């Protein structure tokens, strides 16, 4: 883009009278705040030379379509094709007796205006040139704006690249905190985990631990998505490790209550209702295979229990962990007897929130029916089916939420426990 302090107008014409327009008082005044500077070429050769050296500085060219030494249309070809300059505004002048089709020229070339000899009055030339300068100025402004947009785009792209690097690094850190699936299959060989974040990082997380003969499994969904939820999930895992592994708290309701206190102590910012902005929908299971029992508690997230042909949803608290409600409301632990081949499903709301082709969410009822239909299948086949269903929905509407589903089948060894 040029930044000239004046408008350079090239007159390429073998008629000396045309060049005298520079003496017209009209052109002594500034146009759009800048003076006019005329450049003169009397032959096509002169025009080419000036254009070659200064085309980036020239705003408008006024030329005779037939110069004495050749076809003036070559000038247009040279400007547009050879120099690649689409910005110069071209005004063609021709003798009315010359047999050139205005329609043919305007269809084939980008020009600003076409003036016959009958129209070449000083006033007509002035207003035509002024109009061409205005068009050139608009193009300059547009180019400047595009340059600014491109610079901003480069900055945004760089920032995105740096952000992606940070998110990828954070994703590795978050994944390193998740327990390995082998720990689950060590005690429950016929089990599976489906864990897919909407982004590289997210708020759905799980936790396993075996302490003093108790196997604890947690499935949680943190408020929000992405980085904010991921940070909350990492805090949640850290808190759970301390509560369960250090403090040796195994009762699910007590775990949730203590976890709620920890979250509230971390997030001091409250909204007008006195609620923190970050919390968790979570379920906790404590398995005692020796005594064939399962302790269950949950905040929003329930569990499904399959035995034979029946599938039961165990009720949980209707409020999330991490809100002030946890200070004055108690979570409840339910004691459940377990048998060989029972199945426990722990989950977040990711499947239910997934959009279908009709833009409606899959819904908890459909999620329940999906589990119910496949409960008799092997856990491996169930996992493959659920992943297939999820893939089909994602192909239509993309993934709309973090997703976590844990399937646990009570092993044969429980029958050997006394």
Report on the architecture of this protein:
The protein has 418 residues and is of the alpha+beta class. The protein folds into two domains: 7-147, Response regulator (Rossmann fold), CATH 3.40.50; 178-416, PPM-type phosphatase domain (Phosphatase 2c, domain 1). The protein has helices at 16-19, 44-54, 73-82, 102-108, 122-177, 181-187, 226-246, 252-266, 325-328, 350-353, 364-374, 379-397; strands at 7-12, 36-41, 58-64, 66-67, 70-71, 89-94, 113-116, 191-196, 204-211, 214-222, 280-288, 293-299, 303-307, 310-314, 334-337, 343-347, 403-409. The strands form four sheets. The protein has a five-stranded parallel β-sheet, with helices on both faces. The radius of gyration is 38 Å and the shape is rod-shaped. The termini are far apart.
Features:
418 residues; alpha+beta; Phosphatase 2c, domain 1; 5-stranded antiparallel β-sheet; 17 strands; rod-shaped
Short recap of the structure:
This protein is of the alpha+beta class. Helix content is 40%, strand content 23%. The chain folds into 2 domains: 7-147, Rossmann fold; 178-416, PPM-type phosphatase domain (Phosphatase 2c, domain 1, 4-Layer Sandwich).
SSE blueprint:
Elements: E1 7-12, H1 16-19, E2 36-41, H2 44-54, E3 58-64, E4 66-67, E5 70-71, H3 73-82, E6 89-94, H4 102-108, E7 113-116, H5 122-177, H6 181-187, E8 191-196, E9 204-211, E10 214-222, H7 226-246, H8 252-266, E11 280-288, E12 293-299, E13 303-307, E14 310-314, H9 325-328, E15 334-337, E16 343-347, H10 350-353, H11 364-374, H12 379-397, E17 403-409
Parallel strand pairs: 1-2, 1-3, 3-6, 6-7
Antiparallel strand pairs: 4-5, 8-17, 9-10, 10-11, 11-12, 12-15, 13-14, 13-16, 16-17
